Amino acid sequence: MKFWELLSLARTAPEAMGRLGDSPAWTEYVGWWHDRDALIRARDRAKLDHELPDEACRHVLEAVPNRYWIADGTVRRTREGTPEPTYSAVETFDRFGGSLLEEVEERGSARVPDLDD
Known about the structure:
This protein is an alpha+beta fold. The chain is built from 7 helices and 4 strands; from the N terminus they run αααααβββααβ. It has helices at 3-9, 27-34, 36-42, 45-48, 54-61, 89-96, 98-107, and strands at residues 67-71, 74-77, 87-88, 109-111. The chain has a 4-stranded antiparallel sheet with strand order 3-1-2-4, with helices on one face. A hairpin with a 2-residue loop joins β1 and β2. α1 crosses α7 (98-107) and α6 (89-96) crosses α7. The longest helix has 10 residues, at 98-107.
């Protein structure tokens, strides 16, 4: 997942990005997070498009409370109290990847080709 995608997903739980400080291997990204407004203004594609380690993404997404459901080959963010089976941000990331997850957040849903519900 790209750094900007993780930033987008964590906007519902901004403190989640601070979890990048839990590992010495990710400390560089904490600085990026603190400087995110400047990175966005400068359109620093090297940092914004940087592919983060999956382990770092999972660690941050564990603190993101968003839930998702899958129906008819489409992933959607779930509503509170939905009776359908739902999936955490980490489960959805592991199944479909960060780009699809960010698309769901941005557009409300994303199609998954050849999905076995």
